From TrEMBL:
This is SDR family oxidoreductase. It comes from the Bacteria. It comes from Anoxybacterium hadale.
Length: 259
């Protein structure tokens, strides 16, 4: 029986190399740390300077980490990331398109520069970097692309139109790449995190009215933690998800199921 082939090693990432953009902070750090715990080595493109925390987390697991600082909206930097990953490790098995940005302003006077900045990083980079990674994965005989959506892939927020547009579009890119690349044993899926308690939104959570509004809509009755993301991303990066392609997984405690 084919069921006899299954074993828990299917969830292991031992011997794999994962590129996680923007993994030196926030949610990306959780994805990278999860991969290291599962046995993968990391290549991390980053924009901000400090990489000490994620470097320590990865090396604590006995895994390797290579960092390259730059701007992912720069075509030359994207190519350098792929080239350097191959130079360092000789392969690229997993890509997580995590890097992103948002910018809030009054809707009526929303600056064009904010729109272009968000769309370029949150949407265009996902497309272009994935295409470059897919070339490597095709030659290797397979790979995993994991895009990061959002609760705003399905809903909308006020005064930040490009973020909602980009995160909705990320799901379209995910399905398109799944359709185009599935024949090459490359699976493309998305994770859509809900509201997670992080340092970035600590001040926002101090607004009791807003905090209660969000919490009351979450079926689990709490905001998520970074480790709530880790199991799903390892699953999508592993052999265990080889027949999962073109899907988006909400990690939101049930936020999307309620009114």
């Amino acid at each position: 029986m084919t069921t006899e082939r299954f074993n828990m090693d299917w969830f292991s990432l031992k011997g794999k190399v994962a590129m996680v953009t923007g993994a030196n902070q926030g949610l990306g750090m959780a994805y990278a740390a999860a991969f290291a715990k599962a046995g993968a080595d990391l290549f991390i493109p980053h924009f901000t300077e400090d990489v000490s925390e994620i470097k320590q987390l990865i090396e604590k697991e006995g895994r390797k980490a290579f960092f390259l600082r730059g701007d992912l909206t720069d075509k030359d930097y994207r190519k350098a990331c792929i080239d350097e990953c191959m130079n360092q490790y000789g392969c690229l098995d997993i890509l997580v398109n995590n890097a992103g940005i948002s910018a809030f302003a009054d809707f009526d006077d929303y600056p064009d520069k904010y729109w272009e900045m968000c769309i370029n990083l949150d949407f265009n980079v996902v497309y272009y970097l994935s295409k470059e990674a897919a070339k490597i994965m095709k030659a290797q005989g397979g790979g995993k692309i994991i895009n990061i959506g959002s609760a705003l892939s399905y809903t909308s927020d006020k005064n930040c139109p490009p973020y909602t547009a980009a995160k909705t579009g990320v799901l379209g890119i995910t399905r398109n790449f799944a359709n185009e690349l599935g024949q090459y044993n490359i699976q493309t899926n998305a994770i859509c995190p809900g509201f997670l308690a992080t340092e970035v939104n600590a001040q926002l959570r101090e607004d009791q009215a807003f905090y209660n509004k969000i919490t009351n809509r979450i079926a689990a009755g709490r905001w998520g933690n970074l480790d709530d993301l880790m199991g799903a991303v390892v699953f999508l990066a592993s052999k265990a998800s080889d027949y999962v392609n073109g899907v988006d997984i909400n990690i939101d405690g049930g936020f999307f199921t309620t009114l």
